[in-house]
Amino acid sequence: MFPFSYAVKKASASTPVVYWEGMQLVKGQVGKVDILKPINLWKRENNKLKFVRVLKPGEAYRVYRYDAAFGGQYGVGGQYFVTNMKGYVQYKTPSKLKLKLVNPELYGTKLTLGTVTQEQTAVLAPGVTQSKLSVKGSKGNQEIYKLDVDQKSSQISFETSLAKDQMIGFETVNSMAHREEDEGKYVIAGVNGDYFDSNGAPTDLTVHNGELVTTNTTPVNERTIFGVSFSGKAMIGNPEILLSVSANGQKPYLINSVNKRRFAGHLVLYTSYFASNTMTNELGTEVVLSNVTGQLNGNGQITATVKEVIIGKGSAALKPGEFILSGHAAGSDYLKSLKAGDSVTINASYDKPEWDRVQQAIGGRYHLVKGGNAKTFNIAGAHPRTAIGIKEDGSVFAVVIDGRRAQSKGVTLTDLAKVMKDFGAVEAITFDGGGSSTMVTRKQGETTTSVVNNPSDGRERNVSNSLLIIARRQAGELHRLLLNPEEVTLFAGASYKDLKIAAKGVDKNNNTVSLKDRIVWTSNVGKFNSDGSFTASGIPGKGTITGTSGTVAGSVSVHITNVLDSIKVPKDTIIVDKNGTAAIPASGYHGGMDVVTDPAAFTYSVSDNLGTVENGIFKASGKDGIGKITISHGKVSAEIKVITGNPGPVIIEDFEGDISGWQVSGARYESVKVSPESVYVKEGKRSLKVAYNFIGTTGTSGVYASKKEPIPVMGAPKKIGMWVYGDNKGHWLRSQLKDAAGKEIQLDFTKNLDWTGWKYVEADIPAGLTAPYVLEIPVRYMQVSDEHKNRGQIFIDQIQAVYE
User: Fold this and answer.
1) At a CB cut-off of 8 Å and minimum separation 6, what does 464 contact?
2) Using CA of residue 488, residue 493, residue 494, residue 495, what is the dihedral sign?
């Protein structure tokens, strides 16, 4: 296939699949040429043109470069060129967004906030793209999450969602997104919405699917609203809706608010969006309206019939299909004039006509960018933020910036305004921020959304409402195979029972589609064996693993390495009977990733002639002893202590390492303390000092020395022993052991410590316990008699497990 062919090239695993003009964009491509009239295809050799063939009208070719040589030519791959002749060719170029998706290194985002150190982009669905940007600036690191929405896509729309589908209450953005999924509609992404009160009610204007949910609360100069018109046009402004009611054709009466708390003298309209009832007191009148027709929104009229007039009760029940007018004082007096059967008309209009019949609206707060100018705010504090902006072409983007952590400090409102302008906003506002800032997306091949940012609470916060991006499109035909992970590192010559590559079929909109044909796996850097395992090539390099199902395929980038950074083992000690066997699992790491567990990749050695290792299995000799198994590859290695047969005592704590993890507790004492000791030492350079003062206490006193993590005891020893430098104070010395079943056992070394100086003591481990064990409290030094309370200190060294 010629390098300039219009046929689709396979995208790399890290490159998103992007379509433009009926073709798949590939890395390095900047545009295409359509052939209008017959024209020569040239090949450049030694700075001369060599004729290849005549291109025919109707053909089209990818363009990778353009230069002025030979009168100006388009590079269509390799050394092949087409001359720029007016009337013979037509050149087209994709949008900058699409070019950036395929060539992020060339079209990366520039921000005044700092340097973009990493930018990842994924197409969630046609018309919806999600990006994550890591930024390093003078004010700290930032992590920015961005959603770009192409309003020209007829299948993509915005939709507001209320927590629990009503005004009063809380719910997470992700939960709202999952709940909005239904037949013929799926949620692509979403962000948190308006600020809210203590009951979870959003603060300002909310419109859901063309129906007014609630009116504004915030003063006009302190709020901003995002809306989408019935034609799909995004708007940012500050509309106020005006409502009135008239009965039997009489003079209209002002309605102060919709689904808000009823204040003194007000008349409020309640719908079933509010709660189960109006939550009002008895100091007013409430009128139930039935036979409601029309949609409550601007430029509209509602007609209804008075069903019931309720005086002096409050909290009237809100039912689907019914409205309630609730008034206090003057509002109450007006409602008292109504009676059952009266005809009622409710009129609504916005003070800004372009908002009439708005389909979706959600409140915000600060107008960050207005008329293309980023505003400056005299409000201190860098916090997590959520914002939404509209570009000059009418497309919309939402941004969430994490904060309050080292990886992302958060931004001030002034910096947020700059970010939104940098992204191209001509209008932009904030939604609620702080711990509420949340973005959810439906990743390629997934059936539901998940949280993509890192909310500052450490978990997703319950909020009042959200703004969701909806697609109304059913899953189509199988389009491609989505493989995860996109890239793997394997070890040269190693075999893998399971590569753990997950495969999903998706349609053009990244909806999951079931696979009718089994997946056939192939690779150019190894082979798949008859049992399904994979053996990597013995030569380091790069290649692919490809999965094919029917006519679709997907690939994973593969890096073959023969270098390990480290080797890790899950156990530091094993105990094996004489002539017994035990598996020696090991994992080799490269670049921080576990790349090989195949025993054939390692070299093994065993000390003291205690046995041999073949294919990762240790076989003990007939010798009792303690030694080590070394697992190595190249310059890296790991060690496992091995105990074979009956080795006698095995030291499980010698206090020679870091003993900062030791801690002290006790019961009924004046003071207790543990500390390292370098003078009174049995072996090595250090022991453990245990000091106590029981004077003046009543009841059983004790000092307990333990590690933060219990000391593991491998196998099933018969005894626990230790060396003790006694203080001849007559106290009771014990240890606390726990077996694998969680049973705790006290081991008694002596009930009367009556010596001074070093002495070795042992305690039997009772039969019937489940090995392995842990030593929970190695030292419990106690006194039960009030007549023998005193103070002193003992020293502990060489705690050991005895297997004889």
Assistant:
1) 162, 163, 169, 170, 193, 194, 195, 196, 200, 201, 202
2) positive
Q: How far apart (Å, rounded) are the C-alpha atoms in residues 91 and 77?
A: 15
| Strand arrangement of the beta sheet that strand 566-568 belongs to | 566-568, 587-590, 593-596
**Burial label, 643 (beta-carbon count in 10 A; 0-12, 13-18, 19+):** buried
Which residue from 237, 216, 190 is spatially nearest to 428, judged by alpha carbons? Answer: 237
Helix (H, G, I), strand (E, B) or coil at 553: strand
Strand partners of residue 424: none
d(CA 204, CA 214): 7
CB 141 within 8 A of CB 134: yes
pLDDT in tens, 715-729: 788 999 999 999 999
Q: Which residues of the chain have pLDDT under 70?
A: 1-16, 22, 105, 153-154, 183-184, 473-475
The CA-atom distances, in angstroms, between 428 and each of 95, 424, 547 are 22, 10, 44
Rounded-to-integer distance, Cα 326 and Cα 332, Å: 7
Q: What is the three-class DSSP state of 77? A: coil
| 525 contacts 491 by C-beta, under 8 angstroms | no
Other CB atoms within 10 A of residue 676 CB: 15
Using alpha carbons, select from 760, 799, 792 the residue that is nearest to residue 689.
792
- Looking at residue 1, its pLDDT comes to 24
Q: From start to end of 658-738, where are the E strands?
A: 662-667, 671-677, 687-693, 701-707, 711-713, 719-727, 732-738
Tokens of 699: 């009841």
CB atoms within 10 A of CB 307: 16
Whole-angstrom Cα distance, residue 467 to residue 378?
Answer: 28
C-alpha distances in angstroms, 420 versus 136, 367, 386, 731? 17, 11, 11, 73
Number of other residues whose CB lies within 10 A of the CB of residue 264: 10
Cα separation values, 31 from 11, 126, 571, 740, Å: 16, 19, 57, 67
Q: Contact, 390 vs 248, CB < 8 A?
A: no
Q: 401: which DSSP letter?
A: E
Instruction: Return the H-helix or E-strand segment holding 101.
Output: helix 96-102
* Helix/strand/coil for 780: strand
Count each helix (H run) and each strand (E run) in the chain, helices first. Answer: 4, 68
Task: Judge if the upstream peptide bond of residue 485 is cis by omega within 30 degrees of 0.
Answer: yes
DSSP label of 102: H
Three-class DSSP category at 434: helix
**Confidence at residue 474, expressed as pLDDT on a 0 to 100 scale:** 62
Residue 120 DSSP SS3: strand
DSSP assignment string, 133-198: EEEEETTEEEEEEEEEE-TT-TTEEEEEEEGGGSSS--B-HHHHHHHH-BTTBEEEEEEE---B-T
pTM over 0.70: no
CA 147 from chain centre, in angstroms, equals 16
Structure token pair of residue 448: 């539901």
The answer to whether the peptide bond before residue 772 is cis (omega within 30 degrees of 0) is yes
- Summarised one tens digit per residue, pLDDT across range 113-130 is 999 888 888 888 888 999
70 in helix, strand or coil?
helix
How far, in Å, CA of 153 to CA of 139, rounded? Answer: 38
- Looking at the DSSP assignment, which residues form a beta bridge with residue 140? 137
- 682: tokens are 């049995």
The one-letter code for the residue type at 545 is I
Convert the pLDDT of each residue in 467-516 to its tens digit.
999 987 666 788 889 898 888 999 999 999 999 999 988 887 777 788 88
Map tokens 């992700």 to a residue.
Answer: 174
